[in-house]
Amino acid sequence: MKKKILFIGGTTGGGVATINNEVIRIFRKAGHDYALIDTEKMKSKVPAPVVYILCYVIAFFEILVGKPDLVYLQLAQTGYSHQSFFLAIAKFLGRETIAHLHAKSDLKGTTTERQFKRIISSQKYTDKMILLTKPCMDDLVKNGWNKPAYVIPNFISTDDLPTRLEPVTQRKQMLYLGRMNWEKGIYEILDVARRLGDEKFVFIGNIDNEQDRKKFTTELESTKNVQWLGPAYGDAKYTEIARSKFLIFPTRRDEFPMTLIESTILGCVPLVSNTGSIDEIVRDGYNGFFISPDDVEGIIEKILQWKDNPVLQKISENGIEYARSNFTSEAVEEKLLGIVG
Predict the structure, then answer these.
(1) Which of 8, 41, 60, 224 is the most exposed place for a label (fewest CB within 10 A)?
(2) How big is the CA angle at 180 (ends 174 and 184), to the nearest 5 degrees?
(3) H or E element at residue 296
């Protein structure tokens, strides 16, 4: 049965927006009617202190007048309290509600007791919850969540990806892709680059912190084989990934990064630390390799061991196949549509 769905969440920016766009596209393609409240666009037009109050008012009248069958909300782990208030409004007005929570695997361990209880108590007005990983779902269920919960991992559309890929064994550059800060291991990669002066290293990402910006750009001046391109999106980003032999990603964060999906599906082999839910994307020795963010020598050793090894091509192909089978719109579409019913 076709439904009218009100989506709430941003459509520009990082991983949450990417997923929101794809979710909307999947339901639109399936013939469902929809409306959208784009919270990120509102933030660009309205002062921060009042943006959510305005969005709540808009949501109230959109639900009251538009009468959607359900309200589908994208939520970040941070800011859950004020974001989930949209669901409370929807439930007050008698609508079905779905929360799509972008949370870390160790949800209880990465929130305060008050924040975690707030998430559990939100089941009063949340009919269904979608989570990125099974450990996160298990965390909720064993601590009192009794509404329907589902696991749908992060995923991407294949529509805009390059159709022809150069063999990984012929690629010349090493890549870092993500937010540019200490926690993601950017300074360890610079150290690796200085010690491997004959290799080309490319960084893609935005630096939010001014202290990190000054430190990174200063070190960049003395590291001649490194290029920082700043943030990149769409074709520009995919082109750089498809040129890269390795994605070097020594993160210290608990996360389920879109970066790994985008890289493996384009044949770029990840060297990544095994934190959070990364082992759901990368299998050590099968479609990538695990490294430690504090072991520069180990990262260098892994690069030298594999950069000219012909077996790397098979590992690259494994990554493409595994990503396409598990982390694309086509892979999750049927389950996602089934949740809405």
Answers:
(1) 224
(2) 75
(3) helix 296-306
Q: By percentage, how much of the chain surpasses pLDDT 90?
A: 83
Q: Are residues 93 and 181 in the same domain?
A: no
**pLDDT band for position 15 (cuts 50, 70, 90):** confident
299 token code pair: 């990262």
CB 129 within 8 A of CB 148: yes
Count Cβ atoms below 10 Å from residue 3 Cβ, excluding itself: 17
CATH number at residue 250: 3.40.50.2000
Tokens of 301: 């050793």
Q: Cβ–Cβ contacts within 10 Å for residue 233, how many?
A: 11
Q: Which of 50, 55, 51 is nearest to 87 (CA)?
A: 55
Does residue 336 sit within a domain? no
Q: Do 322 and 176 belong to one domain?
A: yes
Burial grade of 83 (CB within 10 A; 0-12, 13-18, 19 or more): buried
Query: How many whole angstroms from its chain centre is CA 183?
Result: 16
Phi, psi of 11 (to 5 degrees): -120, 10
Give every CB contact of residue 261 below 8 A, 6+ residues apart in sequence.
154, 155, 156, 281, 323, 327
Rounded Cα–Cα distance for residues 47 and 53 (Å): 11
Lookup: tokens for 320: 């493409």
How far, CA to CA in Å, does 172 sit from each of 250, 270, 295, 306?
20, 15, 23, 13
- 316: number of CA atoms within 13 Å, CB side? 25
* Structural domain includes residue 157: no
pTM of the model: 0.89
Give me the DSSP letters along 134-159. HHHHHHHHHTT--S-EEE----B-ST
Q: Do 339 and 130 contact (CB within 8 A), yes or no?
A: yes
Is 138 in the same domain as 182?
no
Strands 226-228 and 173-177: unpaired
Q: Is residue 158 part of a domain?
A: no
Find the domain containing 86 and state its range. 4-152
Q: What is the CATH number of the domain that holds 92?
A: 3.40.50.11930
**DSSP notation for 188-200:** HHHHHHHH-TTSE
Is the residue at 340 inside a domain? no
